[in-house]
């Protein structure tokens, strides 16, 4: 049987994004994300649950998130679950923490009345650099539009 480790989350950034670099120069950012879930209780009352998730971003994705996102701003994250394990220096016991390693993020715009004052980029996806083709200029139709079957009269009065 094949395995699948895929996570998709949308929530609000809970703290300013910490950006650092590995000794080899790779960017790494750690963020917190608050993800809300609303459900109905037994009596029909609205119950809101918040889950706080730690997320690690790597490379250009980390740099873009640090530059264009901040505390309180909405963010969409696609990634995978990863279990961090370590030995606690104080107690000597084994410790572990489940987190998300992001493969792709999408900036969802500014949150009203919030943000860290950082610049806001248009909604974008950060997965791999892609080149965009330059837009091609189109020539205006000459002599009329085939959809309407007649010539275009330039001196025609416009009703608005």
TrEMBL record:
<feature type="compositionally biased region" description="Low complexity">
    <location>
        <begin position="118"/>
        <end position="145"/>
    </location>
</feature>
<feature type="region of interest" description="Disordered">
    <location>
        <begin position="107"/>
        <end position="160"/>
    </location>
</feature>
<comment type="subunit">
    <text>Homotetramer.</text>
</comment>
<dbReference type="GO" id="GO:0009295">
    <property type="term" value="C:nucleoid"/>
</dbReference>
<dbReference type="GO" id="GO:0003697">
    <property type="term" value="F:single-stranded DNA binding"/>
</dbReference>
<dbReference type="InterPro" id="IPR000424">
    <property type="entry name" value="Primosome_PriB/ssb"/>
</dbReference>
<dbReference type="InterPro" id="IPR012340">
    <property type="entry name" value="NA-bd_OB-fold"/>
</dbReference>
<dbReference type="GO" id="GO:0006260">
    <property type="term" value="P:DNA replication"/>
</dbReference>
<protein>
    <recommendedName>
        <fullName>Single-stranded DNA-binding protein</fullName>
    </recommendedName>
</protein>
<dbReference type="Pfam" id="PF00436">
    <property type="entry name" value="SSB"/>
</dbReference>
<keyword id="KW-0238">DNA-binding</keyword>
<dbReference type="InterPro" id="IPR011344">
    <property type="entry name" value="ssDNA-bd"/>
</dbReference>
């Amino acid at each position: 049987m094949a395995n699948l480790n895929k996570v998709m989350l949308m929530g609000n950034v809970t703290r300013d994004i910490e950006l650092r670099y590995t000794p080899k120069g790779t960017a790494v950012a750690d963020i917190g994300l608050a993800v809300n879930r609303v459900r109905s209780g037994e009596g029909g009352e609205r119950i809101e649950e918040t889950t706080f998730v730690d997320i690690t971003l790597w490379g250009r994705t980390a740099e873009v998130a640090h530059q264009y996102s901040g505390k309180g701003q909405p963010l969409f994250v696609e990634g995978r679950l990863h279990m961090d394990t370590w030995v606690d220096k104080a107690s000597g016991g084994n410790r572990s923490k489940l987190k998300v390693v992001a493969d792709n993020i999408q900036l969802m715009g500014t949150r009203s009345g919030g943000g860290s004052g950082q610049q806001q980029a248009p909604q974008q996806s950060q997965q791999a650099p892609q080149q965009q083709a330059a837009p091609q200029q189109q020539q205006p139709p000459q002599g009329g539009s085939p959809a309407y079957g007649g010539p275009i009269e330039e001196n025609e009065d416009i009703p608005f």
